[in-house]
């Protein structure tokens, strides 16, 4: 299957690299382009057989599956330009959460889906969020799921939980990274541990925690219970967390949903044109 990518920013590049390194796709079957073509050429420096073009029309006409990896407000004008070149049998996939599949179907005649990846997919792990348009046939769904299964656990979601699902899957690594950085900085500030050792221990703790959860030996509450001995040190640490965290994550979801509604509104104005 020939795959085209329009946009080689952070997430577009992560998908391209993950598909190649998981052997989900051979570099020779992938064609890429970017507004700043030098970014696409940097990828070709690593994968010499990948195809690079400056022609958006070439991407559309020569590939069965096309990933649109551009900013939300760039999608409508891009698709309006390319719609005359798109065939009904092709599969168009947007990776942008504010753009709904039904909006894509207003503009293009082909099968459409939305796939929201995560940076964890770069390690061939984590979840990718999939929403199929009404136009998407079973064969197309199978191809999309098969491709994403090579780099993640694809999870089909409805549009009404897009934001919270994206917060957990796609934004979650950044949120957790921030918390771990604060954890490390506090350890260095409050004790004589070196930052290098604190980083090493924290990293290996996270890797071990991930493996524990993957093994399903413990649930999150059971794991906390196992470590937290009554009257022990861990319990005192949990008390500090309870007093400090409070509604922090509620506010995280509130903030992301406010921004999401703003993005949806801006995109909606375009698609109503």
UniProtKB/TrEMBL annotation:
Residue ranges occupied by any Pyrroline-5-carboxylate reductase catalytic N-terminal domain in the UniProt entry = 2-97
UniProt domain Pyrroline-5-carboxylate reductase dimerisation: residue ranges: 163-262
Matches recorded under SUPFAM superfamilies: 6-phosphogluconate dehydrogenase C-terminal domain-like, NAD(P)-binding Rossmann-fold domains
NCBIfam families this protein is in? PRK07680.1 (NF005814)
Q: Which family does it belong to?
A: Belongs to the pyrroline-5-carboxylate reductase family.
Tell me the PANTHER family matching this sequence: COME OPERON PROTEIN 4, PYRROLINE-5-CARBOXYLATE REDUCTASE
Name of the protein in question: Late competence protein ComER
Q: Which organism is it from?
A: Bacillus atrophaeus (strain 1942)
